[in-house]
Specification:
The complex is a heterodimer of chains A (229) and B (217). By secondary structure, chain A is of the alpha/beta class. Chain A has six helices and 14 strands. In chain A, strands 1, 2, 3, 4, 5, 9, 10, 11 and 12 form a nine-stranded mixed beta sheet that branches. Chain A has a three-stranded antiparallel beta sheet with strand order 6-8-7. In chain A, strands 13-14 form a two-stranded antiparallel sheet. Chain B has a ten-stranded mixed beta sheet. Chain B has a three-stranded mixed beta sheet with strand order 7-6-9, with no helix packed on it. The chains are: A alpha/beta (229), B alpha/beta (217).
């Protein structure tokens, strides 16, 4: 059965009301812009979004925020989109802030069948409040649970038709981690090639992690705008 | 009076003097980013937490929108650079593989603890990689203007904003002075060119010890 989808609407049919979604990207860099655009056209509410940021003002996940489709966001840096803070002050959105290293490691754990782990990041700060503290070899750590999602929407550079993925420069960021930590993984890619065209040595995400592939219709350009390919 | 960008460059230039020999350095957003342009030693490798070891300057005409630093500004890549995912990037940081982190702050207190991720009641809600860098980097240098926009000291007896880590930073560099933090105490080791000790005293709320080395400029 092919993993390649042509139609964005049918690709996103697995996304339901109240779902938890992981969405790749560091801001708009490496974000699945085509799939996010698809979500803005889909009738869906009450989403929990796990992503480093909520896009930029009105762009990427920022557009989804403006539509009030996001109930909760889990990420590390919401400052760059001022709409997030405004929505939070109005009580429209719940926010969970995690250090960036904890956010990514929690995904890694979630994808690797690990329930949680102890980290020294955040010990003694406001972000450690209510978290279990434990001393190991004289160093204080806090417990962080693994995180998983119903669906992961990720961005890669090239896929082969089996679903093996390679990434492009700093557009990699959280994408390979999210590919491991969701029940359904949808990868938006710039190019689809035949098996064998990607060197086994260079494949970052092996195909068993990937369920659907769709060709990107939107890209980030030098001007920072999202253009149709 | 210096202009804002001149002050920033003065601080960055002084911070660059701390980076010598083979080392891996992570630069934060703002003044820290400027440090890179004053480094001439090719054995200094820049790490950016969004997934690149080997950050280089980029020409205006070679900008790649998918090649950026942690401040989402376009950068280049050096020969021998590598890309990696965010968990691996933070394994490098948390795991103690990054030698120096240079960070900006909102406040720093007299024990060397910093606050740089949240302002209560304001829409500043971004921790990013700051907490990880503080627990993981071998050495942490703070670069900051000495006072905030309203002229108040950023070097305080105690931070009012939520702290980033219980760890004390190692050094604080402002446009007025350089402080070394030892045993949770600030030691003024250097005055910036043309600055008088009296001015530092006037503009600093934190207590500090004066230990200017003989012959230091």
């Amino acid at each position: 059965m092919t993993k390649i989808y042509q139609d964005i609407k049918s690709t996103l049919s697995c996304v339901k009301n109240g779902h938890t979604l992981m969405v790749g990207g560091f801001g708009l860099i490496g974000a699945p812009l085509t799939l996010i655009d698809g979500l803005t056209k889909k009738d869906v509410v009450g989403l929990t979004i796990i992503s480093n940021n909520l896009g930029e003002k009105g762009k990427g996940l920022g557009a989804l925020l403006s539509q009030k489709k996001i109930k909760k966001a889990i990420g590390s840096y919401f400052t760059s989109n001022r709409d997030v803070g405004d929505a939070y002050q109005r009580g429209e959105i719940e926010l969970e802030l995690l250090p960036q290293g904890t956010l990514s490691e929690s995904m890694r754990a979630g994808g690797a069948g690990i329930g949680g782990y102890y980290t020294k990041t955040g010990v003694g700060t406001e972000l450690a409040k209510g978290k279990e503290e434990r001393e190991i070899n004289g160093i204080k750590y806090i417990f962080e649970p693994a995180i998983r999602a119903d669906v992961a929407l990720i961005r890669a550079w090239k896929a082969d038709t089996l679903g093996n993925l390679v990434y492009y420069k700093t557009a990699r960021n959280f994408n390979p981690l999210m590919a491991t930590a969701a029940d359904i993984v949808i990868a938006e890619v710039d190019e689809i090639v035949e098996p064998g065209e990607l060197s086994p040595e260079e494949i970052v995400t092996p195909h068993l992690f990937v369920d659907h592939i769709i060709k990107a219709q939107k890209v980030l350009t030098k001007e920072g705008v999202i253009a149709y390919v | 009076m210096y202009k804002k960008n001149q002050i920033q460059e003065l601080i960055a230039k002084r911070a660059a003097k701390e980076l010598r020999g083979s080392c891996v350095v992570n630069l934060g957003i703002g003044i820290p980013t400027l440090v890179a342009k004053f480094i001439e030693d090719e054995n200094v490798y820049f790490h950016t937490e969004n997934g690149l070891l080997g950050v280089a300057d980029v020409d205006e005409n070679q900008i790649d929108p998918n090649l950026v630093n942690a401040g989402k500004l376009p950068v280049g890549e050096t020969i021998g650079a590598s890309f990696f995912n965010s968990a691996e990037s933070f394994a490098m940081i948390r795991g103690g593989h990054v030698d120096v982190a240079i960070l900006g702050v909102l406040q720093v207190d007299q024990s060397g603890q910093i606050a740089n991720w949240a302002v209560p009641g304001k829409n500043i809600m971004g921790v990013g990689g700051a907490m990880d860098l503080l627990v993981g980097a071998k050495k942490v240098i703070v670069t900051t203007t000495h006072t905030s926009k309203d002229g108040k000291s950023k070097l305080l007896r105690k931070c009012h904003f939520p702290i980033t880590s219980t760890r004390s930073v190692d050094m604080i560099i402002t446009e007025l002075a350089v402080f070394k933090v030892e045993d949770k105490t600030l030691n003024l080791i250097e005055l910036m060119p043309g600055v008088k000790l009296e001015e530092v005293r006037e503009k600093t709320e934190a207590n500090f010890i004066v230990r200017i080395k003989e012959g230091a400029k």
